[in-house]
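Quick question about two entries, pasted in order.
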Amino acid sequence: MFRTLFAKLAMSLMLLLAGIGLLYILLSTSITRHYQQEFVQSLNSDLAANLVTGRNLLRDGVLDQDALKETFHHYMMVNPDIEIYLLDGNGRILSYSAEPGLVKREHVDLSPVQNFLSGGEFPLLGDDPRNYERSKVFSATRFSLNDGSPAYLYVVLRGQEYERIEQLFQNNFLFQLSAAALLASLIVGLLFGLILFRLLTRRLNRLTGLMQRFGESDFIEPIRWPGDTRRRDEIESLGDSFNNMAERIQEQLEKLKKQDSQRRELVANVSHDLRTPLAALHGYIETLQLKADAFDAETRSSYLQTALQHSTRLTRLVDELFELAKLDATDAPLQTEPFAAAELAQDIIQKFQLQAEQKGVQLKLDVGDSLPFVEGDIALIERVLVNLISNALQHTPEGGTITVSLRQEDSGVRIQVEDTGSGIPEKDLGKVFERFYRGDNGARSGEHAGLGLAIARHIVRLHGGVIGVSSEVGQGARFAFSLHNSPPDA
């Protein structure tokens, strides 16, 4: 019943208003009672003294017992609101204006009486002789008895009869006041409170509905919280958070879809590239097995050499797959250290020199002056250069040239591998780094669409850089990336 935020707010408001109403009634009742006591005591402060003098209770300085009895009897009949008591000097009750059995106390505390006679601040409450637990406002005066001992006339201003009638009306009044105050508070407070809560929760309900629709659409529908620039409250902040979350979820879903598509494409390409050398290897070995006696030594050697090439190609492809998978791991650490990029490039070119000569390709190194040390993982940077030079050798015809150049930049060293091969069509430049990418026109197609360039791009990214390519068909291709300078204290 109270599961919604609106219902909980409404119930909380009702309880709050009821508590405030009850507190108001208690405070107003206490203040009213205090005011009435002060008013009655101030109005009748001289009543006891007037009774002594006005009713002639003292005759020639001596207490007139007959006048006292007559006064008691008179006020019992005429004004039952007051109760009159005669006290001795110790506060013991000597006589009173009441029916027998009504007076419970035998003594009255004289401290409030002394405070009254000395002009204490009203209201002053004294003992009620008819009740051990209550205190009431009073009027008092001091005089002497027949034997000269001190005595007090103690007048309770709001006696038992008055209190009974007052309580009857008061109960009825307080009930009506309580009911009226609570009812009015609840009606007015609830009316405005519910309107306010409805205005506040309406926007929250709209946001909840948007979230539910977004979930029901499997996070595909582009649902957004419209927002209101005039209101920058918590609901708007929640709406902004929902928008950010929805965008992030959809970006992640798109990324997952793209990764799934790439995974399917990768599996298909891997299957194709693995199947081709495997089938060729199997075919040559099977042919040798079936016709070994029919082949001469030269033919058998040629078949074995071809099978070995396919085996080498297969091994290289598997190694590249494992290497790329290792680089894809988020926890793959970089063993960075300062090194001379020119020396590394020189060593790699020497490794490819024989292969280049066999193919009739000239391999050159062009190093700028005073190159600084760079920071990086030497083994991985070597792998980048090996892949780029190997790719260039694969696509550079006989008589061509491959140039590895190094130049200093503001924040590091720029390394470029340029060939005079077949070049890359402009529409394919943005795709050459994709895994198993194959060009449509086969301008730079080789034995297989390997992973060398994809591995190179991944390694450069791990070093915080970007590898770029520029080319024109028939004019060769240029691959370049930069390495940061080594820190001065390295």
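Here is the second entry:
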Amino acid sequence: MFLHFGIRASKLKEKRIRGNTTCPNCESQNSFIATTFGKYLHVFWIPLFPLSKTTILECKHCKKSYNQNEIPTEINKALLKENKLNPVKAPLWHGCGGLILIVLFLVVFIFIMTNESEADPIKIDPMTKLLMDDIVKVSSSPTIETDSISFYLKPCINSSIEGIKTNEIKYYSKIKKNKLLVLLKVMDMKKIEKSSRKELLFAVEDCLLDLGLLETYDCYIGVKGKWNMLLVKTPYNSDLGGRFANMNFLLPFYDNDSIPTIN
């Protein structure tokens, strides 16, 4: 494919040079006009981005022109002073092609990313999905009919923990064969130091022991904050740092019988 590109120039500004200047050719006073041209790169005559600027001086009396490298020192000082007071800027259209290319690139990028997302959706592990489904079932007011373990666990925790709004803690429990899953969600855990947050999980264990459940079942306990899992303890693993706990430790609770068949 033939690609036509190159450098072009356009007239940007014409102005009279103020100050005490003398034309070396005709010795007329204050007779210089400065014309500034701006160069830009183009492809198929569409400007991509601006390049350099150049200024030509012309004496209005004798019509002699001076390029930048020919301008006498005294006149050049007057020109620099004038450019400082009244600078010449490249017009926006000198870079319009570059802006168009950026927009086209963003459109193509978004189109590709959207298609990739639709063609290859994120695969979620079945056990992780089961855990996420159970996390959303937590309630701050469990009943004996819907969740009897959480119903008895809530007043026990309320009397064991200080420093947070225990009435707003949400609970969910679930029994699978010889396994017990207990999930808590605490929205204001930030009020407790990270090193002390594990005390809440230990309180859950004490309450389960009082209820006769800790020794009866393999207990999988998870404490979730506002955004992520904070504490996890199972018969095989624990993550008690109080900040970012590995919720994958809870997945063994969901054995193969609990996982729906995926075609």
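Reply: The chain is about 25% helix and 25% strand. The first helix runs from residue 73 to 85. Hope that helps.
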